[in-house]
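Hey, I was hoping to borrow your eyes for a little while. There's a protein on my desk that I can't quite get my head around. The fold is given in discrete form, as structure tokens running alongside the sequence. I'd be grateful if you could look everything over and explain what you see. Here's the protein in full, and shout if anything looks odd to you:
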Amino acid sequence: MSEATGADADSDHYLIIARFALKLSETKRTTNIKLSIKYSIEKLRDEQIHKYYRQTTHDEILKLITESNEENIEHTWKNIQTTVSAGAKKCLGICKSAKKKP
């Protein structure tokens, strides 16, 4: 740190010159992160698997709609969402995650 004085400054204050280094670190946030399940959707290109997935999810959703007389749309949507996820897990399987390259 150094002090700069001069005749130009019309003040009783002195200009201070300083150098400093700042180190920033990356913090890893692992709380409240919901990991999504990835299904191997490339299997849908096979016509038999595509038909099987479509038929099973369609049948399950129709069964849900006929059995459900609920007024709460959020609960109905949650049921449909779990039905589609269960059908995808059953028919397609879970995709194996590839390691990311840094």
About this structure: DSSP finds two helices and two strands in the chain.
